[in-house]
Design brief:
With about 150 residues, the chain is an all-alpha fold. It is built from 7 helices and no strands. It has one domain (about 1-145). Helix 1 runs antiparallel to helix 2 and helix 2 (about 35-65) packs across helix 5.
Length: about 150
């Protein structure tokens, strides 16, 4: 059972990274009806992956791996969880912006978005990617027992 949850955890993590990486590429270009639709779909995959990642990760911590005492006694696990929460909070702004585009896209129109909002979304996605890279570093260190308090 532990192997299944490890697989699901990794699958969700890879889906999350893929979704945000493709969002990063799509948002860099000019906003079109097609790219706006892609961004909404990618954001949905990103959110679903993040939710699955969190649920499966917590199940692994409490039921399938080394136990909560090991993980919560590791500075890099705490940093990883903190970064995950920060990245999740950062993702709220782009998600709200993409959600606001729904009505316009439903009728095939480009949502009215000024360049300053697109710039803010791009900047946030950059920060999310940086946060994910740091999460991966923390995971590697934690998995090797580095950071035990």
């Amino acid at each position: 059972m532990a192997a299944l949850f490890a697989f699901l955890h990794h699958l969700a993590a890879f889906a999350l990274v893929a979704a945000i990486a493709v969002e990063f590429v799509v948002i860099r270009g000019a906003l079109t009806v097609d790219s706006a639709r892609k961004l909404r779909a990618l954001d949905a995959v990103y959110g679903a992956s993040a939710g699955l990642l969190l649920i499966v990760g917590l199940l692994r911590v409490f039921y399938f791996e080394k136990g909560a005492a090991f993980y919560f006694g590791n500075a890099f696990f705490i940093a990883k969880l903190t970064l995950f929460i920060i990245v999740g909070l950062l993702s709220i702004y782009p998600t709200l912006q993409f959600a606001a585009w729904r009505k316009a896209l439903k009728v095939g129109q480009l949502p009215p978005v000024d360049e300053s909002r697109l710039h803010a979304i791009r900047r946030i996605i950059h920060w999310e990617l940086a946060g994910i890279a740091l999460i991966l570093l923390c995971a590697a260190l934690m998995a090797r027992g580095i950071g035990q308090l």
